[in-house]
């Protein structure tokens, strides 16, 4: 009886098949579960977007709106004075383009735990959003998210390198 | 199925049943040789003799190596060097006890592996070499594909006979690998072998957590350019979205009954802890603060949730009733403490403690308040108790790339995994399968 119990328990351990390929591969469309991909269903008329959203200004390398990163000090979420003009320009853009949707993505260096760094990156994106709220940008047009340390340069050894990881990136839907 | 060496047992036969005798002798042995608590655990010297392969198959003649590696990793055993021995017994009659005494073996295991018709059959023994007494003898068999699983089962049996604690060698672990820019959530045996990819993505995956029945894994994927929590069945491969709200969705933790999860949502503010049913319904906030509250983990009885918060300035560990209310601070030592994990007996926390620029794994005894550093850093993270609570699996970074290791909870035995990938992180240990 012991033996059959053992075999049963051994078999039950192998819940997963012997295939070495992933059960799910998110880089390939996987039927119904892929339908909640917002980015793939947003392929609307680009002509009206160009005029409504003034995408040319966002793309113009001479326009301050083309600048998209705000850097932070270690373990801090305070927006430094040097980014005043950059934040004001983007806040004004959002306020004057009601159809614009902005994403603020926070990032951290790779020290500390991954989940805590998601939260720390979020604190930074919220800090930038609040600065923009004061200047008239509405919450409904902004999503604050965080990649935590996931995009950090893992080869950093000095403070200058870590400094590049601690930032909030601004992006727009449909740009 | 059990066979006993009858001549040793004959005199006791009239007083005890075989099973009872076996239990008593094991119990007595365990008391004599094991000190479980505190630092400097005394390890058991074990001679793991090569299990003789009846049908020679070079690729498979390694059962004793798997067993020795398992026992070493547990922290309770010191497998002895046996290659130089003249006598390599695979049957009881061939044992040279004098030789065992010479190498200071306290116990030995030996056996024979028979491979035929795509099946493995192992007859093995565990022997007390001082008392010259058989502690266990069993026959295990199964398909050849389960060769390693059978070895782990033998390790489990030896471990439990000599420590009284259930072994974890047949359990599963999971981890995230990053290879050539691709991420994969993988499931493997507790020794890192037999790797199966569960989900692959060009974007990061973090925070995988096993459901209490070990049939599902909840995890966070950034594939939609923001963190979203998914639950994936390991049985069918099917996955569902648990939480995809505005802002971040992260840090899932299963309630002990598997019916609910604690998760972290942000909307357009700081990380906050919510409770949600496993089907994605019944979302409600657990606690509300203006600060970061994240990394929730349930106590095994389901009454409390431990979490990390920066409400005191630096991140520290707090706890709150799983029905909400006031939070209590738990960690006070060190510059910052985060990444909490509760032991299966609820008596200890392990978490990452940062002090003097190093992130180390510590054990926090919740009864005495004593805190013990069990790793050296500098970048250790994601500690997870084994299902029996005696080993901790954790990740550490070396020159920017991650590796996994285990450490016995006394901090004495550390063993890194030999997994081939550019970067490995975010380990989790599956619960015992009931």
Short descriptors:
heterodimer; A: 175 residues; alpha+beta; 60s Ribosomal Protein L30, Chain: A; four-stranded mixed beta sheet; globular; disordered N terminus; B: 434 residues; mainly beta; Rossmann fold; Neuraminidase; 2 domains; six-stranded mixed beta sheet; four-stranded antiparallel beta sheet; 5 helices
Short description:
The complex is a heterodimer of chains A (175) and B (434). Chain A is α+β, with helices and mostly antiparallel strands and 175 residues long.
Strand pairing plus helix content of chain A: what structural class?
alpha+beta
Total strands of chain A: the figure is 5
Shape descriptor of chain A: globular
Physical arrangement of strands within the biggest beta sheet of chain A: 2-5-3-4
Count of DSSP helices of chain A?
6
Task: Note the main sheet of chain A.
Answer: 4 strands, mixed
* End-to-end separation of chain B: 22 Å
CATH architecture of the domain at 71-175 in chain A: 2-Layer Sandwich
CATH superfamily of the domain at 71-175 in chain A, called what?
OmpA-like domain
User: What's the CATH H-level homologous superfamily of the largest domain in chain B?
Assistant: TolB, C-terminal domain
CATH topology tier name of the domain at 71-175 in chain A: 60s Ribosomal Protein L30, Chain: A
Quick one: CATH class of the largest domain in chain B?
Answer: Mainly Beta
The overall average pLDDT of chain A, rounded, is 80
Question: Stretches of chain A where pLDDT falls below 50 for ≥5 residues?
Answer: 1-20, 29-45
DSSP strand tally of chain B: 30
Low-confidence stretches of chain B: 1-40
Describe this structure in words.
The complex is a heterodimer of chains A (175) and B (434). Chain A has six helices and five strands, in the order H-E-H-H-E-H-E-H-E-H-E. Chain A has 175 residues and is α+β, with helices and mostly antiparallel strands. Chain A has a four-stranded mixed β-sheet. In chain A, strand 3, helix 5 and strand 4 (142-148) form a beta-alpha-beta unit. In chain A, helix 4 crosses helix 5. Chain B is mainly β and 434 residues long. Chain B folds into two domains: 6-163, TolB, N-terminal domain (Rossmann fold); 172-429, TolB, C-terminal domain (Neuraminidase). Helices cover 12% and strands 42% of the residues of chain B. Chain B has helices at 6-9, 18-33, 63-73, 97-102, 147-163, and strands spanning 44-48, 52-53, 77-79, 107-116, 119-128, 133-143, 172-179, 182-189, 196-201, 205-210, 216-221, 228-233, 239-243, 249-254, 260-265, 272-277, 284-285, 293-298, 304-309, 316-321, 328-329, 336-342, 348-355, 358-365, 371-373, 380-385, 391-398, 401-408, 414-416, 423-429. In chain B, strands 1, 2, 3, 4, 5 and 6 form a six-stranded mixed β-sheet that branches. In chain B, strands 9-8-7-30 form a four-stranded antiparallel β-sheet, with no helix packed on it. In chain B, strands 10-11-12-13 form a four-stranded antiparallel β-sheet, with no helix packed on it. In chain B, strand 23 (348-355) and strand 24 form a beta hairpin. In chain B, helix 3 packs across helix 5 (147-163). Chain B is globular and about 75 Å long. The model of chain B is unreliable at 1-40 (pLDDT under 50). The chains are: A alpha+beta (175), B mainly beta (434). At the A-B interface, helix 1, strand 1, helix 5 and strand 4 of A face strand 6, helix 5, strand 9, strand 13 and strand 22 of B.
